[in-house]
Design a protein that fits this description.
Blueprint (H helix, E strand, L loop, with lengths): L4 H11 L9 H14 L5 H5 L7 H10 L6 H14 L19
Helix pairs in contact: 4-5
């Protein structure tokens, strides 16, 4: 499953983000800041042992629609999929870097 506009809209409402969605460093900073400030780390499911689902529909249901938190894998997979859907590169680069270590 790829995230569509409706899922991205729901995610942005969940994290309280209403800025641009262009893949820029400023947008990246804004989305990551809003995500980390809004969706808490939660490991209740790890302790209570219900099935932990890491597929995108399950992550959207739990973290976005049910407004719960998630543990590291859940948080990172949701954020990764959102950023990819917005057109961010798949590799990490240092903000402010120039040259060969920056993706084309």
């Amino acid at each position: 499953m790829n995230l569509g506009r409706a899922e991205i809209d729901d995610y942005c409402v969940r994290i309280g983000y209403s800025g641009s969605r262009e893949p820029t460093a400023e947008v990246l900073r804004g989305i990551v800041a809003a995500h980390t400030a809004t969706i808490p780390f939660e490991n209740i499911d790890v302790l209570t042992r219900p099935p932990i689902r890491l597929d995108l529909p399950s992550l959207l249901k739990k973290l976005v629609h049910n407004r719960r938190g998630g543990y590291c894998y859940e948080q990172n997979l949701l954020l990764l999929n959102v950023l990819r859907a917005l057109g961010f590169a798949r590799r990490v680069w240092r903000l402010g870097s120039t040259g060969a270590d920056r993706p084309e």
